[in-house]
Amino acid sequence: MTDIKQLRRNVVEAKRRHAGALVLQRIGDFYEAIDEDATVLSVVTGRQTARNAEGVVFCGIPYHALNEA
C-alpha cells in the first residue's frame, strides 16, 4: 500500500522544482498521477481516473506504455 501523504509530499516538492510539470510517480508497474495531474493525464491519454478510499483522484499508465502516451 502506498502512503498518500508521502506521494503528495513528493508531488509538492517536484512541482516546486519544476513549476508547471506533470508529475508521474512509479508505483509498481505503473506511473501514477494524483489530483490535478491525474485529470490532465486522463485527458491526454484517454484513460479513466479513479478515486481511492481517501477520495484521492488517480490516473495511471503502465510503465512500458509511457512512450506511447
Description:
The chain has helices at 4-17, 36-45, and strands at 25-27, 30-34, 50-51, 57-62. It has 69 residues and is of the alpha+beta class. The protein has one domain (4-68): DNA repair protein MutS, domain I (MutS, DNA mismatch repair protein, domain I, 3-Layer(aba) Sandwich). A 4-stranded antiparallel β-sheet has the order 1-2-4-3. The longest helix has 14 residues, at 4-17. The radius of gyration is 11 Å and the shape is globular. The N and C termini lie far apart (26 Å). This is DNA mismatch repair protein MutS-like N-terminal domain-containing protein. InterPro entries: DNA_mismatch_repair_MutS-lik_N, DNA_mismatch_repair_MutS_N. It comes from marine sediment metagenome.
